Predict the structure.
Amino acid sequence: MLAGRPYLKMNGLGNEFIILDLREEPAKLDEEAIRKAADPKTGPGCDQFITIENRKGHDGVFMGVYNADGSEVGACGNAARCVGWLLMEENGETKVDFETLGAPLHAMRIGDKRIAVDMGEPKFGWREIPLAEQMDDTRYVDVKLGPIDKPVLWGPAAVNVGNPHCVFFVEDAEAQALDRFGPMIEHHPLFPERVNVSVAQVLSKHAIRLRVWERGAGITKACGTAACAALVSAHRRRLTARKATVTLDGGDLAIEWREDDNHIIMTGPVTLEGEGRFSDDF
Ligand SMILES: N[C@@H](CCC[C@H](N)C(=O)O)C(=O)O
């Protein structure tokens, strides 16, 4: 029961979140309530519903991530910056650690409402992504789009950065009908847990233009984990350096895949839009 409970509205580059703090007063969330809250016709509206919790089996604070369709998932890069910022406002420090289903995260304050998050190590093994069948070189996986003898897109890179992603490298990201093929690839049988789908246009060794169809949410203005997935995949194909600016519809993220410890560092802004309370319908 969420009626009367306070929430925050935040966004990371226009990727919209409802943030619910469950630490003092836990509540049971069901898919229907999340779908209702995420739909702007019936609730405050968001791309992801985020919880801050003391969850059993996890040390320290836990960030829960639920897509607009109600599914709980392992990671959300943009929300990690927002939650990191909130926790640092609380502890008065310039860094904070918290847990997610995907990986433990470490956030650092870089400037005013500018946060860097250590997103951990990418995983490339076919079982780790996961893929439904063995593929040894996940820089190119067996997915084709369009007529069988004349596919329009094929061979995306696949990677898990706390959640599964597939990235098509294209000449012109704006020209791709992502709204049409995004849902088809999200549900492609190669991805047993579904997948986040991106089109990436490499602009230079240090710049990528990225558009994203998010699993469980559709097209969003930005996706932090997709930006990480794109940079890592581009570097694995020798298309970029280990560090690049990734430009999403909502703005830029700085992504670095460190050589020394294999971790991905994502840096970008957070926006606090305001607060509200769930109505009696919840
Ligand atoms: N918006 C997020 C990713 C949210 C989860 C994703 N849709 C999934 O299902 O894995 C981000 O900023 O990373």
Remarks:
- The chain is about 15% helix and 35% strand.
- The radius of gyration is 18 Å.
- The first helix runs from residue 31 to 38.
